[in-house]
Design brief:
With 131 residues, this protein is of the alpha/beta class. The protein has one domain (8-130): 3-Layer(aba) Sandwich (Rossmann fold), CATH 3.40.50.2300. The protein has helices at 17-27, 42-52, 68-78, 93-102, 114-130; strands at residues 8-13, 33-39, 56-60, 62-63, 66-67, 83-88, 106-109. α2 runs parallel beside α3 (68-78). The longest helix is centred in the last third of the chain and has 17 residues, at 114-130. 33% of the residues are buried.
Amino acid sequence: MKVARDVASVFIVDDSAPIRESLKLYLRDIANLALTGEAESTRSAIAAIAAQVPDCVILDFQLKDGTALDVLRVLRPAFPEIEFLVFSSHASQQLHDTCILAGASFFFDKATETQAMLGVIETIASRKHKT
């Protein structure tokens, strides 16, 4: 999907369809942001993100066929400009640190930090709109 240059693009990776739908509802209210796609597995996420190169990826840690670390290991070196926002229902300091070391830009707890994650996405969209 082609997105206007002054609009930030976001891609959602989560193996739960209801969570992807909830995120889409939240994201539609963010100005200057366009959803470019979604995936439920590491394989499909890697292929689609590499093809689309979105500004931002919301990346669930645990996926059907792997984890966010699998996605980060493949995509982070090739696409350093993408902001990867990892989120997990099983957040811990160790998992946070592991994801950040693997190349995540941010790490959020699904249960308590959804609003914080959306705030970061708003900032990314705002920053893109100003360029």
